[in-house]
Every structure is written in C-alpha cells, then in structure tokens.
Amino acid sequence: MASKYSANLIKLKCSVCNRVNYYTRKNKKLVERKLEYKKFCNWCRKHTVHKETKK
Question: What CATH topology corresponds to 7-53?
Fold first, then answer.
C-alpha cells in the first residue's frame, strides 16, 4: 500500500549530467509550474539547476 507521501513525491534531475539526485514533495493544488532548484550535484561536483521530471 502506498503512503500518502509517496503520491506527492517528485524527482529532481540535474540539468547538466541528467542524473536524479533529489526527491521532494509538492502540493499539486497550489503549485502548477514545474519546480526548479539550484542544488549540489555529487557527480558534477558543483551547484547546478535541478528540474522536476516525470515519474
């Protein structure tokens, strides 16, 4: 059985190396746009833009 939190989980993918590094939650009723954060990528070894991807 899926948790109530797993339904809201989204993946954040590095825009440089295209690896999924982070998972986060989003309130889909209030936030309609795709999320975009500047976070640290362990494979690129620098801060890059991480964008929301499909499941």
Answer: Rubrerythrin, domain 2 (2.20.28)
